[in-house]
Fold each of these.
Amino acid sequence: MTGTPAPPGASSSPAPTSRPRRSEATRDAILVAARERFATDGYERATIRAIAKDASIDPSMVMRYYGNKEGLFAAAVAVDLRLPDVGGLPPQDVGAVLVRHFLDMWEDDEVLTALLRVGATNQAGAERMQGIFRDQLLPVARQVCPDPEQIPVRAALTASQLLGLALTRYVLRIPPAVALHPEEIVAWLGPTVQRYLTAPNP
């Protein structure tokens, strides 16, 4: 005996499953757990097993999606600084705009904090930071620096201020740095970054 015929126009194929959606949720859970574990334990001590436990999945799933710890780290700390186009700004405003932009990012993005913690103690993290510096901060400096030969040095000095602020405020959490209002930080740091990027060679 056969079942009731399907109505005209009905598809005989099974309903689509939610597997792609579950896959995306699994990836997201892994990345969240990895960022927290890398930030807490550092790159060397963080393990695939611990990250999988934090994400409530089997370690084999982490390997399936990301291959190994290096691949997972690269995915977990993928950072787009979304730096503003400073070429269209009045030259005297560049320092303040950059400091305010970085403050806004640090306040809301735990990935940057995790990357800074790992980068300070591990070669893989340091190389990641160097890549961000090379690919994202150098082009900004190139737009405003008066001497093309000094672009790398001026960008590095700018990074020293921005990363130093992040280290003291978000990682070490030195109380006076934490207590500063963002506009106070812009007022203090903006002129320094401005000088590094646009002032004549000392």
Amino acid sequence: MAEVLETVSGRGGELVLRRDGAEFEVIENGMFLMDTRNGESERLLVTGAADRLASGARVLIGGLGVGFSLRAALDHRTVSEVVVVEREPAVISWNRTGPLREVHGGALDDPRVTVVEADLLEWLRTTSETFDALCLDIDNGPEWTVTEGNASLYAASGLERLSQLLRPDGVLAVWSAGAAPGFTARLRERFAEVDVVEIPVPRGEPDVVWFARVSLP
């Protein structure tokens, strides 16, 4: 039986950190959000994007999660700087000094990492920063958002804004717990190159990661 380690009131509602044996789970408003059981697709979100980039890449990770994507970015040969945007102070704390720190070996201490505590959509609307890769994992998918307002990120207007923040030949990577054909179609309308990668999971339909490039190499 899972042990509740902490319950807090977050920006998106109630957040619960639980331990189930050797694994950790994060629940938001009663909905499963993330855990530490596998992480293959969360790592691929970053490594698949970074594999498409030259050395010295500047990467944005939207959603800190349990740190799988951040660790993968720091371990990749092409990545020199990572900006992580996370809206929940508790998630940052759990990763920086709490139980999740052990999952990624204290990745937030790396001098290449900047953590921004902000709602990703609000931050994207106002930032003037640009990146070689935008790696987004803030929902269970384009059609299964954690917060209703997040749906605009995956609409045509959201994709247009994301493309503006990418440097030439930059890569947009988006994680999902399932397929979203409508989102795939919108990506192909806006980006020159779109790859859809399915990652099998122990139960249920595969996770999906999209990689979209602004212009052809």
Amino acid sequence: MLDPALAGRLSFRPRLPDREPLPPGRQPLGLFAERDAVLVVPEGIDAERPTPLVVLFHGGGGSAERILPMLEGHAQARGFLLLAPQSLFPTWDLVIAGNGPDRERLDQALAAVSARFLIDPRRLAFAGHSDGGSYAMSMGLTNGDIASHVVISSAGFLTVQMQTGTPRLFLSHGTRDEQIPIDRSARVHARKLRDAGYDLTYVEYDGPHAWNPDVVARAVDFFLDEAAPAAVETE
């Protein structure tokens, strides 16, 4: 049988916090000497009350600093925690050779957040753009008993060896994306995900290989269940 860890399965489970919460702002978790995970803590978070968490994965060659603007303002305004792990190498291990150190580092980062804040298991999303979108989608379907929602922007591939749980999915892609053409990616993914029975919201927008602020705002509504769009949409 395939080792669940090699298939991308996480060992993390939310638990009661037993350490002091981190103060508001961008907070490195202090887990790794290089490319540490960063947690955005909004003002007014009560560490003892269930709080939504979004785990946001950067694109190839990216970093926490480069991807955080995608959701940081929403986290501050809407009161959810935002965790930005960083791949050990220029992109995620799953893109290069398979699940390995990045899965292990993600497990540690999630455990560190859970030790300081009470995470709402009904609102724990994996999200990302480009390679980060591919990683979020692949890890989200593999760990759908942990991730309640998956927000995917301009993803190129889907690699799942073990499906678990039934996360809700928000998939978006620009119709003028020349780096990852939509016909070979999102439209194929959407068809496969619908056929597999997932609760999918699919949005196409007029744009290149870049996340779209209006679509991101709709994805946040989807995650928080406010004014959620219809199951399949095209712009």
Amino acid sequence: MAFAPNSVEPPHAVEPPHAVEPDTAGDPPAPHAGPGTSPRLGAQAYVRGGATQTAVKILVVGHFAVGKTTFIGTISEIEPLSTEETMTRAGEEIDDLKGVTGKTTTTVAMDFGRLTISDRVVLYLFGTPGQQRFVQMWEDMARGALGALVLVDPERLADSFQVIDLIEQYGLDYAIAVNHFDGAPLRDEAALREALDLLDDTPVVTCDARDEKSSAAALTTLVRYLLDRVR
């Protein structure tokens, strides 16, 4: 699956300041990697054959159990790399499951996916773990990223404060994607902006991480915003 919205065109004379250079050798990432391992991301995982593309690194972030792994799995045009592990009873004392139902696994390293949005630009999506104990990984994950899509659960807005603080600390531009869960009421955008203390120009969109079209629209909003920022 490749999503190529006609309305998103990268500037011809502007290269993103933090573009990720694609690898020139190696193997594609394995479907799964164990905790603490670094996946080998080779040329086949990055650039389609015969294409000349700019690789752009995007973070997909959010608090615990907000839907990051689902989002990347839904939108990626390649088999996504996932480091999901089964949650144990011991983890219940560490990870706050209040307001979360049906969750049996958690990301312990990262998620990775790819989305081609035009003949010239391909996005590499890096999902970060949402728990506090994995914050030390964020510095490495943020290095070289052009921006971030912040997934938010409208019923757990307070859990997003630390995530947004970290993104701002690393100087990344970002958009907010409100992941609308079944049965959850729609929230007023102005109220969300006030609750999250957002700048007026920070994009806010509603999406369903399980829906390809909805997830693609959220990423398109972020890309348009980032392109405007680098022009």
